[in-house]
Design brief:
Elements (H helix, E strand, L loop, with lengths): L2 H4 L10 H10 L1 E5 L4 E3 L7 E7 L2 E7 L2 E8 L4 E2 L13 E4 L3 E7 H9 L3 H30 L4 H22 L3 H6 E3 L13 E3 L3
Antiparallel strand pairs: 1-8, 2-7, 3-6, 3-8, 4-5, 4-7, 9-10
Helix pairs in contact: 3-4, 4-5
Length: about 200
Amino acid sequence: MNGGALRALPSLGGYPDAELDLLASVAQEVSIPAGGLLCREGTTGQSCFVIVRGEIDVFKALGAGDRVLATLGPGAMVGQMALVDRAPRSASVRARTPTVALELSREVFERLLGAQSPFALRFQHQIAVAGIRQLRTALDRLGLLSSRRASPAESADEGALALACVQAATEDWDISLEDMENAVIVIPDGQMTGAELAMRRRGR
């Protein structure tokens, strides 16, 4: 796969050609059959995935079964926290349809960060933005649930799903709900220069 083929992906459209070529050269292209797992909840992640073709389900074990938290398509980035944190995966990812993805390992990513690669710095920023959106979406889901009138059974089912989304998001970022509401991304001099994502609490 070449960098030009990645330009059509929504999440990568703003990257310069040279950085897309770099991603295509350092990431491994993987094909996953429908029903195959990209990563499993509870395991230590070693890489993240950018979905090129196909659809995936992000799901979490809840009670006696699994709950699908989201269905994502081309351009989606999943498992990205593995590049900046060695905590266990907060959810599993399964191919809903035959899927092609680019797998970027933490080892390669850290090497690029150490070399101050513009691609790695931009990608790190994107990880932070994606994480914040995940957290906000989880809270919005809870807020929407509280405003709806539904039967007790529907409320219990939707409430469990909403809480699973919040749990996955807060586990990924290891922060409380209050921290999530107050967090903003700080990028010194327009860049992130280390492997850690800097976050600062905003006063209310």
